[in-house]
């Protein structure tokens, strides 16, 4: 349970700290608002398509492995962002990110169903996470004073992969207990 909250909190911090800068990156690649909205819509569309495609699978995927793979995929996607040079590259990254985000959200929802958390405890965790997020957004701004914006994507990608390793390690430990 403790590892799950640490991973969930870390992912939320990554997503929130990177998001405003990612939007600027998309805008700079696109040059027009219609291109920007197309790129952002590709993320949502690929995520929705992935959710729908998962209903065709006859049995549920292994939850813990899906969780780890989704984090690793999100990490690779973040690391790939600075290498994108054209709108087509970004469109591909957006689609891949949407697929892995769908896997992540699905695994997160399934974990919540299993844990039966009270809403008060969940709200307290969300409050603490939001405080950490505020600090990370401010910290990301300070990072840019010394490094390029690409550094944020590399750090976010590495942090996703650390969380993927933690989730995989958690899976391995739970498999040993069976």
Question: In a few lines, what is going on in this structure?
Answer:
By secondary structure, the chain is an all-alpha fold.
Q: What would you note in describing this structure?
A:
The chain is mainly alpha-helical and 178 residues long. It has one domain: MFS general substrate transporter like domains (Growth Hormone, Chain: A). Helices cover 87% and strands 0% of the residues. It contains six helices and no strands. The protein has helices spanning 2-30, 33-54, 63-80, 87-115, 119-146, 149-177. The longest helix is centred in the N-terminal third of the chain and has 29 residues, at 2-30. The protein is globular. It starts with a helix and ends with a helix. 25% of the residues are buried. The mean pLDDT is 76.
Helix-strand pattern: HHHHHH
Shape: globular
**Which strand-content bin applies to the residues?**
under 5%
CATH superfamily descriptor: MFS general substrate transporter like domains
Low-confidence stretches: none
Q: Helix coverage percent of residues?
A: over 70%
CATH level 1 class label: Mainly Alpha
N→C terminal distance: 17 Å
Give the CATH architecture. Up-down Bundle
Number of domains: 1
**How would a crystallographer describe the biggest sheet?**
none
Query: Helix count, per DSSP?
Result: 6
CATH fold type: Growth Hormone, Chain: A
Q: Could you tell me the mean pLDDT?
A: 76
Secondary structure tally: strands = 0
Q: In terms of structural class, how would the helical and strand content be classed? A: mainly alpha
Radius of gyration: 17 Å
Key traits:
mainly alpha; 178 residues; Growth Hormone, Chain: A; 87% helix
């Amino acid at each position: 349970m403790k590892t799950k909250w640490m991973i969930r909190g870390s992912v939320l911090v990554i997503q929130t700290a990177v998001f405003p800068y990612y939007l600027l990156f998309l805008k700079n690649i696109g040059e027009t608002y219609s291109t920007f909205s197309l790129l952002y819509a590709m993320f949502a569309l690929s995520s929705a398509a992935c959710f729908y495609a998962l209903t065709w699978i006859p049995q549920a995927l292994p939850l813990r492995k899906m969780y780890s793979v989704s984090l690793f995929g999100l990490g690779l996607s973040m690391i790939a962002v600075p290498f994108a040079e054209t709108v087509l590259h970004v469109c591909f990254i957006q689609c891949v990110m949407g697929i892995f985000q769908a896997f992540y959200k699905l695994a997160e929802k399934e974990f919540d169903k299993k844990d039966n958390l009270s809403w008060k405890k969940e709200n307290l965790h969300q409050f603490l996470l939001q405080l950490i997020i505020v600090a990370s957004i401010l910290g990301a701004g300070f990072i840019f004073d010394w490094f390029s914006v690409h550094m944020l994507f590399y750090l976010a990608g590495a942090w996703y992969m650390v969380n993927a390793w933690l989730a995989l390690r958690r899976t391995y430990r739970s498999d040993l207990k069976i």
